[in-house]
Structure formats: structure tokens, C-alpha cells
Design a protein that fits this description.
single chain
Length: 119
């Protein structure tokens, strides 16, 4: 699993969360960077959340923010519980739980197969 080679740090900020994922494994870093590229253009279906992604030399950093207090709390709670995908997606199904109902939650349509967890 790639996930076993990633160090994940979650920091709450006033209006959301910063998730930093780093690795010392070259293959994992290559995979993280390719996933970063494929997710860079994607944004949450829920306009209450702003997601920014930043490539790091040894990983990636995702910042999720909102101006809505309830959404901020939800972002922070889910990040702390590990219920977000590797690139900041919310609304995951499967073993990650679900947020937002039958249609895939806040991100919309995510099937819960986070590649950083399942590979």
C-alpha cells in the first residue's frame, strides 16, 4: 500500500484544514505527484468549500477552506478522523463512511476507492 509509506499531517486553520502528505519513497512520490496532476483541476461540487493543492518536493499539501462555520467544522472533523481522500476529496463511501447522502456527498460521486489507500 502506498498509504503505509506516507506521513500525513493535519493542521486545523481558522477557516478549514491543511493536510500535508510526504514520503521518502521514490515510487510513492511519483504516484502522489501523478495523482496530484489528475486531481489539480477538480474542485468540490459543493461551492461552500475551496480546495487548493500545492506540490512539495517530497509530497503534496491540500488546503480546504470555507466561510460557513458548519462546513469548516465538518472539514476539520473529517480530516482529523482520516475520512478524506488523499487529495482532499470528501464524501467518500466504502470504509471511509459517507457525507452528504446517496449521491457521493460534498465532492459528488466519489466511490471511496482512494488510490493512495487501496494500492
Amino acid at each position: 500500500l502506498y498509504a503505509s509509506k506516507i506521513t500525513r499531517t493535519v493542521n486545523n486553520i481558522a477557516n478549514g484544514v491543511e493536510i500535508t502528505m510526504t514520503t521518502t519513497d521514490a515510487a510513492t512520490l511519483t504516484h502522489m505527484q501523478s495523482m496530484f496532476d489528475s486531481n489539480q483541476a477538480k474542485t468540490p461540487a459543493n461551492s461552500l468549500i475551496t480546495v487548493t493543492r500545492e506540490k512539495l518536493a517530497n509530497g503534496t499539501k491540500i488546503t480546504m477552506t470555507s466561510t460557513d462555520a458548519t462546513t469548516v467544522k465538518s472539514i476539520q472533523d473529517r480530516a482529523a478522523a482520516g475520512k478524506m481522500g488523499a487529495f482532499g476529496q470528501m464524501g467518500m463511501g466504502g470504509k471511509h463512511g459517507k457525507m452528504g447522502g446517496k449521491k457521493g456527498g460534498m465532492r459528488g460521486g466519489n466511490n471511496g476507492n482512494c488510490p493512495m489507500v487501496t494500492q
